[in-house]
TrEMBL record:
SUPFAM superfamilies cross-referenced by the UniProt entry: Flavoproteins (SSF52218)
Species assigned in the record: Fusobacterium simiae
PROSITE patterns: FLAVODOXIN_LIKE (PS50902)
Name listed for the protein in its UniProt record: Flavodoxin
Sequence ranges assigned to domain Flavodoxin-like in this UniProt record: 8-163
Length: 163
């Protein structure tokens, strides 16, 4: 059964713009609702500083506060979750997002931008945070995906029966 765009949420966290670009391409192809996961206190815009901040957050299993929230998560059957691979796992804002909502019985389909580490341990981390969700086929995108992004997203959406 194909998913209906009205029941799909694209939720993403992006620091450098790669994941945002992927989320926007998915939105262009699906028309699904788009939600950016934003921190109350954003990470530094300096690359070296954000690496330190992210590593400290992961080491401490921090749950940074989010500045935006979804009012009616119940209306979505499928949640496409995007993030950059940070330190071989999810950025902690993704953990904050997942712990804020009960996604039991919903389908979670992951897309991840990376610089060579693909998913790392991120799929396991998400499964532990949402053990009662149904995991779809994930998509890993090297940096911004380049000229293949449109086609890669199309194939991934078809694989997950989202047309």
């Amino acid at each position: 059964m194909a998913a209906n765009k009205n029941n799909i949420l694209i939720a993403y966290f992006s620091w450098g713009g790669n994941t945002k670009g992927i989320a926007e391409e998915i939105h262009r192809q699906t028309g699904a609702d788009l939600f950016e996961i934003v921190l109350e206190k954003p990470y530094s815009s300096d690359y070296n500083t954000v690496l330190k901040e992210a590593q400290i957050d992961q080491r401490n299993q921090a749950r940074p506060k989010l500045s935006k929230h979804i009012e009616n998560i119940q209306k979505y059957d499928t949640i496409l979750i995007g993030y950059p691979n940070w330190w071989a796992s999810i950025p902690m804002p993704i953990a904050s997002f997942l712990e804020e909502y009960d996604l039991a019985g919903k389908k979670i389909i992951v897309f991840c931008s990376h610089g060579g580490g693909r998913f790392g341990q991120s799929l396991t981390a998400i499964s532990k945070l949402e053990p009662n969700a149904i995991m779809g086929e994930a998509l890993s995108v090297h940096y911004s995906g380049g000229q293949n992004l449109k086609n890669d997203v199309h194939k991934w959406l078809e694989l997950n029966k989202i047309n």
